[in-house]
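Retro notes (design track)

What went well: tokenization of the new backbones is finally stable.
What didn't: we kept losing track of which sequence belonged to which structure.
Fix going forward: every design gets posted as structure first, then sequence, in one message. First example under the new rule, 293 residues:
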């Protein structure tokens, strides 16, 4: 979601992004901007670094020139890794990272969050074998699948014939109809330049809460994780972590025009109302107002 910044913040962001491309050039090349990086460890055989995206923290690995990412089951809303760490992050078959338990005031972007520490000097430590375990050999580690409701013992959670790693909607079988196309169009309009590399970004997901059956059955350009709005039905990690940055309402019909519908998009910046007319087998979207928070 877009939010206002002053000139100094833009300058800081530009320096940060340049540092990312310089200091983590190998990872930036392999992972196509899916993560923000810190605490790298480079050797002749394996290179490691910490990655962060909208879902949480990952251990990133480049081995034999092949990139892999292993989800840690930790979110920035609960734990903050130290940017400078003297000891190796991978040592004696363990991942071990220094940091703090925190509360966050916002989750707009890495440089836009404010943290309140509730416990400093904490060590996160996990066996590499436990972290990298991928029981169904589908490309996602078990911790990722447990965190987001995928079946860690089945390559194809939704049974649609596409393995979870390549499925753009791994939790639900996709359908093709005009209403799923409407939701796909709405999601696609916000992807920007990311859209060019989506086929190379298997760890980039857009998480949504919805109870709309049409939305559940989408097959968008970007990968999605779709959760029910009832928190008690969500995986525990999703219940306690703020991963959602927006959502879409159910479709409302126009009382007079059978081809005209209304839908609203919600997010950190407020609500946008759309009209959507299905004309000549194509959706015509119009922004008809909204509320800015």
């Amino acid at each position: 979601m877009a939010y206002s910044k002053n000139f100094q913040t833009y300058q800081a962001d530009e320096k940060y992004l340049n540092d990312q491309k310089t200091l983590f050039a190998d990872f930036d090349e392999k992972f196509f901007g899916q993560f923000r990086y810190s605490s790298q460890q480079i050797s002749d055989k394996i290179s490691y670094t910490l990655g962060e995206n909208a879902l949480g923290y990952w251990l990133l690995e480049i081995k034999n020139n092949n990139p892999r990412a292993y989800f840690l089951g930790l979110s920035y809303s609960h734990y903050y890794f130290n940017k400078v760490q003297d000891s190796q992050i991978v040592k004696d078959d363990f991942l071990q990272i220094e940091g703090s338990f925190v509360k966050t005031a916002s989750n707009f972007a890495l440089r836009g969050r404010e943290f309140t520490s509730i416990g400093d000097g904490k060590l996160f430590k996990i066996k590499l074998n436990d972290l990298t375990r991928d029981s169904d050999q589908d490309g996602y580690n078990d911790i990722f699948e447990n965190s987001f409701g995928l079946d860690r013992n089945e390559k194809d959670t939704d049974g649609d014939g596409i393995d979870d790693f390549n499925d753009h909607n791994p939790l639900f079988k996709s359908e093709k109809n005009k209403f799923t196309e409407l939701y796909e169009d709405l999601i696609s309009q916000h992807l920007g330049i990311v859209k060019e590399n989506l086929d190379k970004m298997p760890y980039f997901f857009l998480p949504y809460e919805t109870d709309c059956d049409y939305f559940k059955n989408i097959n968008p350009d970007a990968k999605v994780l779709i959760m029910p709005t009832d928190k008690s039905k969500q995986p525990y990690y999703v219940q306690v972590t703020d991963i959602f940055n927006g959502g879409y309402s159910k479709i409302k019909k126009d009382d007079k025009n059978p081809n005209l519908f209304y839908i609203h998009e919600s997010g950190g910046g407020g609500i946008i109302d759309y009209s959507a007319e299905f004309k000549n087998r194509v959706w015509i979207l119009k922004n008809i107002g909204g509320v800015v928070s």
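Added context from the reviewer: Helices lie at 7-23, 25-31, 128-132, 142-148, 178-188, 213-216, 236-240.
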